[in-house]
Design goal:
Blueprint: H1 5-15, E1 25-27, E2 30-32, E3 39-44, E4 49-55, H2 59-73, H3 76-79, H4 82-98, H5 100-111, H6 115-135, E5 143-144, E6 150-158, E7 161-165, H7 171-185, E8 188-192, H8 199-210, E9 218-220, H9 225-233, E10 240-244, H10 247-259, E11 263-267, E12 273-276, H11 282-294, E13 306-310, H12 311-326, H13 345-360, E14 364-367, E15 371-372, E16 382-383, E17 386-389, H14 396-399, E18 406-412, H15 415-422, E19 427-428, E20 430-434, H16 438-447, E21 452-455, E22 470-471, E23 474-475, H17 480-485, E24 488-496
Parallel strand pairs: 7-8, 7-10, 8-9, 10-11, 12-13, 12-20, 13-18, 17-18, 20-21
Antiparallel strand pairs: 1-2, 3-4, 5-6, 6-24, 11-23, 14-17, 15-16, 19-22
Length: 497
């Protein structure tokens, strides 16, 4: 079944929603209501109003989902060949490609991001399932030379039942980058999407079931973090937890995982630097900076939220950058705006609080720095794209993650000072540099503490490149073959001949 993009946009604009959205959890192969019967509303950030309701789960729903996943772990799924698992993932990729327009429109309604950004996310998920479809039968162990009297081999086995906690900023793509490799490895899953953005994860579960996934292999429980999320990470039937979210919540997840010594993968916050050296191609660099901070209204853990610019070009760069930013339009994600809304009224208040504290502390705001209500968006949640000149390395603007369209500027005298500035926070997720001098670029890449470094382009690499952070940005890696092995446990077998 394919969907017409224009018709879906018109439906969403005229009715405020899209028909046929799942309203319950997806447990053991079907949509079910919460045990309590409770539901919760999900809002369209562009209008600031609810557009659909979904089940509100709790500990009982989580227990049912975990039981289904544990039963499926020893069912037909465990006897399926890796190649057969890969065929299911490839069918899912093809089905998603056919239904990409519907997924993208729903993602925009639920998260607020621009439709072009949602379409990019869906395209990335199509690629993710195709990538891990091809990787499923390539999880090879090693033969270890132990001499003529022994044979030693290692075997990659599925880790078991995986709990995945999905954030609200990239609901579909973050869910997929955990679901696809876990299924390729032979695991079963219970996924808890963010309460703000549950729908595309539920739709993805339905699609995978249609592609041939056995009952119970993938389960999705909607609900709040306090009720469904906390119950899931504390459940003794979980073998591995993948969490993406804030540092504070990640620390609580770690404490819950410690109770049962559960394996853990964390992708937390970031305060990522984008360095512009004096020899860079300025127009290319400015384009990269704008994409790095203002995509998804800056609500990206790996956003390039700190511009570190060499003094020799600072005035030129900032003048051009401010002019570009002030020309950017804000509006509903289904329109033709350059920046969409903030995901929730709570997040909007957090962003506003950060900037107001910076203003009160004497930081120079070069542009933006206020909420705004576009004419066509009613009560939507919007914040002007903002650029602030930081006072020093210890400034909260430099040290704290804002998670919004706020770019902090630091001016440095050369490469060594740029490296020191890049490493000056407790986060270590992403870093980028623009320079024509590749020796300089690689010195930066070696010296900066980050899970991934981009040279002359930001957000490069796609599903094939491992992604994750160090220090307060977390540990473990998603994507690539490293992401696949995250869902495996290594077994060594030694035989005396």
């Amino acid at each position: 079944m394919t969907f017409d993009r224009s018709e879906l946009i018109e439906e969403a604009r005229s009715t405020g929603t899209v028909a046929g959205l799942p309203r319950g959890h997806f447990i053991d192969g079907r949509i079910v209501a919460s045990v309590s019967g409770r539901e919760m509303e999900s809002s369209d950030p562009g209008r600031g109003a609810p557009f659909a309701s979904v089940a509100a789960g709790g500990a009982e729903d989580v227990a049912t989902a975990v039981a289904a996943a544990r039963a499926a772990l020893s069912g037909p799924w465990s006897r399926m060949t890796p190649a057969a698992r890969g065929e299911i993932l490839m069918r899912a990729s093809q089905l998603l490609c056919e239904r990409a327009a519907r997924f993208a429109v729903v993602e925009t309604l639920d998260s607020g991001k621009l439709l072009a950004e949602s379409e990019g996310d869906v395209g990335g998920v199509v690629r993710t399932f195709a990538y891990y479809a091809g990787a499923a039968d390539k999880l090879q162990g090693d033969s270890v030379p132990l001499g003529p009297d022994y044979l030693g081999v290692t075997i990659e086995e599925p880790v078991g039942v995986v709990a995945q906690i999905v954030p609200w900023n990239y609901p579909l793509s973050t869910a997929a980058r955990g679901i696809a490799p876990a299924l390729a490895a032979g695991c079963t899953l219970v996924v808890k999407p963010a309460e703000q953005t549950p729908f595309t994860t539920l739709m993805l579960a339905e699609l995978l079931h249609e592609a041939g996934l056995p009952d119970g292999v993938l389960n999705v429980v909607a609900g709040t973090g306090a009720e469904a999320g906390a119950a899931l990470v504390a459940h003794p039937g979980i073998d591995h937890i993948t969490f993406t979210g804030s540092v504070a919540t990640g620390q609580r997840v770690m404490r819950a995982a410690a109770e049962h010594a559960t394996r853990l993968q964390l992708e937390l916050g970031g305060k990522s630097p984008v360095v512009l050296m004096a020899d860079c191609e300025i127009e290319t660099a400015i384009e990269g900076v704008i994409g790095a901070i203002y995509e998804n209204a800056g609500q990206i853990c790996s956003a390039g939220s700190r511009l570190i610019v060499e003094k020799a070009i600072a005035e030129n760069v900032l003048g051009r950058l401010v002019a570009r930013v002030e020309a950017m339009t804000l509006g509903h994600g289904l329109g033709d705006a350059a920046i969409g809304p903030i995901n929730s009224v709570q997040q909007l208040a957090r962003i506003e609080s950060h900037v107001e504290r910076a203003r009160a502390a004497g930081n120079r705001i070069l542009t933006g720095g206020s909420t705004v209500r576009p004419e066509d968006c009613g009560g939507g949640w919007f914040y002007r794209p903002t650029i602030v000149l930081a006072r020093g390395l210890d400034d909260p603007l430099v040290q704290e993650e804002i998670f919004g369209p706020v770019l902090t500027v630091q001016i440095v005298s050369g490469l060594e000072e740029a490296i020191a500035a890049a490493n000056a926070t407790s986060y270590a997720l992403v870093a980028g540099i623009y320079t024509r001098d590749h020796a300089q670029a690689w010195r930066f890449a070696r010296a900066v503490d980050a899970g991934q470094v981009y040279i002359n382009e930001f957000f490069a690499g796609g599903v094939a490149m491992p992604f994750g952070g160090n220090r307060k940005s977390g540990f473990g890696r998603a994507k690539g073959m490293a992401g696949l092995r995250s869902y495996c446990k290594l077994k060594s077998v030694v035989a005396r001949l």
